[in-house]
Amino acid sequence: MLSGFLRGLGSYFLFLGAVFRRPESWREYFKSFVRETELLGMSSIPLVVFISLFMGAVLTIQTAINLDDPFIPDMYIGIAVREGILLEFAPTIVSLILAGKVGSNISSSLGTMRVTEQMDALQVMGINPASYLVLPKIGASLLFFPILVIFSIFMGLLGGYLAGDWLHLVNPDNFLMGYFDEFQPYYVVYSLTKTVVFAFIISSVSAWYGYHVKGGAVEVGKASTKAVVAMSFSIILFNYILTDVMLQ
Amino acid sequence: MIEVRGIKKAFGDQEVLKGIDMDLKPGQCNLIIGSSGSGKTVMLKSIVGLIQPDAGQVLLDGRDWTAMKERDRKVLRQEMGMVFQASALFTSLSVEDNVRFPLDFFSSMSPAEKDQRVAFCLDRVRIPQSALSKNPAELSGGMQKRVAIARAIVLNPKYLFCDEPNSGLDPETSIVIDQLIQEITREFGMTTVVNTHDMNSVLEIGDHVVLMRHGHKVWEGAGPDILKSDDQEVVDYVFRSALFKRVRAAMNK
Ligand SMILES: Nc1ncnc2c1ncn2[C@@H]1O[C@H](COP(=O)(O)OP(=O)(O)OP(=O)(O)O)[C@@H](O)[C@H]1O
Ligand SMILES: [Mg+2]
Predict the structure, then answer these.
(1) What percent of chain A has pLDDT over 90?
(2) C-alpha distances in angstroms, B87 versus A152, B141, B144?
(3) In a domain, A138, yes or no
(4) Among A4, A162, A229, B177, which residue has the least CB neighbours within 10 Å?
């Protein structure tokens, strides 16, 4: 099993070597990058908005219930909610969800292109399929994931505030002060660094699975399931490593 | 002219090609025939460089293609067009953009010239205007094949490769596709290589035919001559071709 894992890892790095090549045509790669940004990024906005609003709301409810003590001002609930969203919920949870949506989309679309010989067609034309198909997807993910996460942070904060206010769990003005109190810009750096790493993991790992599909439609489905498992695993692992390195 | 010399290929311990030689001639439809699993696709993919053969040489008009690095091959690839068994049109692009795709990558034409070239090729394969903005999946199998041919010839290649262009098509559409391939080959003087197991194609467009069996070349010659061969393997193949049997039966009535 370990040798299988190491072989996979080796093949993954060889694959990255094939992906990061000089484009045959910068203009065509850029066109594809724009298409991918729309396809992978823009289309994820509604999902991220929805998830983040409710995530923020739940976080406020839970924190307010746990800190239901007349001696703890509502401002501290605001601080706790803000840190929770900024440090963990927006970057990690949103990335896990995007691993399911964007990652499985990447692996199944590449897998389909593999089994329907579209990749062979590119290669016969003299276009490196690894590079042309994957580089724009990685680029689009690296650009768009941080934007989605910033979006998610604001939506989460909004959801948290609205829930606290509507459910009369907190004094809204006092709670809101917490959002601005002792704000540490470094946490934003930490959060976005994680996001960029996750974006790279999601786009490249899912691409590796899709690119190496052999067989037919069934194998395409299997590859995309395996990809989601591998991505989730890697995200959780790197979340730990980056937190250890950056916050200690 | 494509010269194939001693091509061998094995997958694991299964030898698929056991040393094949052939000369594929310009301005002609060169057919590789053989029953399913005889190694036609592996042969064609070895010629175009999608599969690296274990031994042997492919010379494209004297240029040693097999020995070239992928980087040097890229230039020569613009002289090649290929039609795949399942068409392999890009599903994310419209019909028109599929045909334009190689031009966008490799030609220095102005946008207007590209439009003209795309229109010419699509018209040449008789794809109606109304289909241009459609997605390939919305077209019938025969139309998809024709779009794939248009895409393959848009850069005006010297070599055209078709892997089973008739697979999945009805006999009538098959004949139309065969004739189209033949016309284009003559018109542009291309060296065309077609994989098929359709005996009709052999008789209709087989200027030069290579019969493969179990990784060996069994017979080579002009299409209709295959009926005159008295080699038992050739006779067997011809008679196993079910459709052909029926045609013969009909003719004998
Ligand atoms: N990538 C591969 N790995 C392992 N075996 C392969 C591979 N490609 C082809 N083969 C084997 O090589 C043999 C010849 O296959 P090939 O696809 O060339 O046959 P074919 O003549 O094109 O048949 P068909 O008419 O069905 O398309 C088959 O037994 C196949 O299993
Ligand atoms: Mg085949």
Answers:
(1) 88
(2) 42, 8, 6
(3) yes
(4) A4
**Residues lining ligand 1, judged by CB closer than 6 Å?**
B 11, 16, 34, 36-42, 164, 197
Provide the total of helices (H) and of strands (E) in chain A, helices listed first.
11, 0
The DSSP 8-state label assigned to residue B174 in this structure reads H
Supply the pLDDT for residue B247: 64
The alpha-helical segments, DSSP class H, found in A37-128 are 45-66, 74-83, 94-98, 104-115, 118-125
**Rounded mean pLDDT of B48-75?**
92
Cα A37 to Cα A29: distance, rounded to the nearest angstrom: 12
Asked if residues A163 and A60 have their Cβ atoms less than 8 Å apart, the reply is: yes
Please state the pTM of the whole predicted model: 0.90
Q: Of B16, B36, B195, which is best to mutate to test ligand 1, by the most ligand atoms within 8 angstroms of its C-beta? A: B16
Which ligand is located closest to the Cα atom of residue B212? 1
* pLDDT digits 0-9 by tens, A135-193: 999 999 999 999 999 999 999 999 999 999 999 898 999 999 999 988 899 999 999 99
CB half-sphere exposure, B151, CA atoms < 13 A: 33
- Is residue B251's pLDDT more than 80? no
Tell me if B22 sits within 8 A of B210, measured CB to CB.
Answer: yes
Examine residue A93 and state whether it is found in any structural domain, yes or no.
yes
Partners of B29 in the β-ladder: B192
Report the domain count for chain A: 1
Q: What is the mean pLDDT of chain A?
A: 94
Torsion angles phi and psi, residue B24, rounded to 5: -110, 125
Instruction: For residue B30, give the H/E element and its range.
Output: strand B29-33
- Residue A19, in any domain of the structure: no
Cα-to-chain-centroid distance, residue B144: 15
- Is A10 domain-assigned? no
| Interface with chain B: mutation pick from A27, A32, A105, A116, highest number of B CBs within 10 Å | A116
A201 close to A103: Cβ distance less than 8 angstroms: no
Q: What is the pLDDT of residue B173?
A: 86
Domain that holds residue A29: 24-246
Chain A residue numbers with beta carbons less than 8 Å from the beta carbon of B149 are none
Q: 3-class SS at B58? A: strand
